[in-house]
């Protein structure tokens, strides 16, 4: 059995990416593709933090407003945000107005700059890429955390990052291509170029998850 849905275009996708045009486009063009630049990875990390407790569809619809509000997620600019910027952001109905998440994004920008002395955010995050990736056939087989996401979370917190829990970091690893949790029967499986085609029977069991929640 597989949880993919075959669309009008003949392509198989998981249910969460099969109906909403915005989510489908994101799934087909972005989700799971490798992100190897500081700017892009900082944006993904920031948006995953804002997504905590919300649906990814909500964040995706607000992404244009987020990019405007956070200077296109340039960490050098965000790191200099002051109290006036905080007030501006908390008054911006186009984004998620959560003080803790706003403060975390600014702090994480500062921590991103600090990491440059040790190779930078990209090398740091990608150093936690696992040796193997799950090969799920159903949504129930897609993990929501992993030993690597737990380790990445701990390491980032030690470097001053916040809102980087293991589940959030696992979602980041999925979105940025460090792992491939596309369902085996999805037309996107193996599309990142990071991982080879799955081996039947190599799925990693888990309790739930698999979609940007």
From TrEMBL:
This is 3-methyladenine DNA glycosylase. Keywords: Glycosidase, Hydrolase, Metal-binding, Zinc. Its EC number is 3.2.2.20. The lineage of its organism: Bacteria, Bacillati, Actinomycetota, Actinomycetes, Micrococcales. InterPro entries: Adenine_glyco, DNA-3mA_glycosylase, DNA_glycosylase. SUPFAM superfamilies: DNA-glycosylase (SSF48150). Signal peptide: none annotated. Residues 189-213 are annotated as: Disordered. One of its GO terms (molecular function) is metal ion binding. One of its GO terms (biological process) is base-excision repair. Transmembrane segments: none annotated. It holds the Pfam family Adenine_glyco. Zn(2+) binds at residue 182.
